Amino acid sequence: MTAHPGCKICTMLDAAAPEDVVLAGEHWGVVAMQETPGILMAFTRDHDAGIGTVSDQAAAAFGPMIKTLSAGLVATGDFEKTSVIYLGDNAIHTHFMLVGRKAGDAPIFDNSPLMARFADKDRDRTRALAARLRDALSPSGTTL
Ligand SMILES: [Zn+2]
Predict the structure, then answer these.
(1) Contacts of 37 (CB under 8 A, 6+ apart)
(2) Of all helices (H) and strands (E), which one includes residue 21?
């Protein structure tokens, strides 16, 4: 990992109070966000161009890390489940928010720009893309 001076995410682990740092790993950092219980931000330690470009090591660590964090939040008894929100529009680190969800919480994605994209339906193009992605997963040994 290379810390880039002036990069808000590169310096996040140093800037955060030690009590807010959940993980300062080689490939991922995780901090508790803004003193709000149950909201964590996980970010790659290296710069990248989005989730498709993270290192193989970061990719391999992501699943176990997010599962452990999610299970840990639920195990507190304060949350019934978690949501993962990917943030990648405006940073050079892939980063996610992990949000503890309580029964009755409003859906996170209602009325968001993401939902507006569902208005642009194209079944053929969607299924062609799905087939292409199935083909892409096959060499990696990932099965459906
Ligand atoms: Zn950075």
Answers:
(1) 78, 100
(2) strand 21-24
Q: Is 144 a residue whose pLDDT tops 60?
A: no
Q: How far is the CA of 28 from the centre of ligand 1 (A)?
A: 12
Domain count across the chain: 1
Helix (H, G, I), strand (E, B) or coil at 31: strand
Q: CB neighbours (10 Å) of residue 83?
A: 15
Q: How many whole angstroms from 10 Cα to the centroid of ligand 1?
A: 4
Compute the C-alpha angle 1/69/34, nearest 5°.
Answer: 75
Range of the domain at 78: 12-106
Single-letter residue type at 112: S
Tell me: the pLDDT tens digits for 30-71?
A: 999 988 899 999 999 999 998 889 999 999 999 999 999 999
**Ligand 1: centre distance to CA 40 (Å):** 18
Ligand 1 centroid to Cα of residue 22, in Å, is 18
